[in-house]
Amino acid sequence: MVAGGIEEEVPMQHKNKEQPTPSPEEIDAVSPFPDPIVVPIEDVIDLHPFAPKEIRSVVEEYLLDCCKAGFNQVRLIHGKGKGVQRESIRSLLTRLPFVHDFHDAPLEAGSWGATIVSLAIPADGSS
Fold first, then answer.
1. How far is residue 95 from each of residues 35, 59, 76, 101, 107, measured CA to CA in Å?
2. Does residue 126 fall inside a structural domain?
């Protein structure tokens, strides 16, 4: 294994060893964040800090909160990579009733590594 320019031989018993998947209770027991993390509602959110399995629910809740706050456009930064998160997010966006439209961000705002979402704000400002 190479880390920081230092090469270290990994003993065979540590290579490719299957680790059991912890249960949600085990994860909660060791989580350094006992309370939900509060994300400020702005017109942009970087999704990189979130676990892939959380992204769809984070996006849905965040966009709903943006609607309630009166934002009419939000930029979701999902990254370029292989496009897996991009497609997952866009699949979700097609089903959200408060999403009017979405498209790739301009080149200077992330290109296909970010999605611009236009929100349908009700006339009375409520969602």
1. 29, 12, 16, 11, 26
2. no
Residue with the larger pLDDT of the pair 10 and 120: 120
The dihedral through the CA atoms of 114, 119, 125, 127 has a sign that is: negative
Consecutive H or E run containing 74 = strand 73-77
Q: Work out the mean pLDDT of the chain and round it to a whole number.
A: 79
CATH of the domain at 111: 3.30.1370.110
Instruction: Give residue 97's domain range.
Output: 37-119
Identify whether 2 is part of a domain.
Answer: no
Q: Token pair for residue 81? A: 């990579």
Query: CA 94, 92, 82: angle at the middle one, nearest 5?
Result: 110
* pLDDT tens, position by position, 24-49: 555 555 555 566 667 788 899 999 98
Question: Is 78 within the bounds of a domain?
Answer: yes
**How do residues 85-108 score in pLDDT, each as one tens digit?**
999 999 999 999 999 999 999 999
- Cα–Cα dist 88/75, whole Å: 16
> Is residue 9 in some structural domain?
no
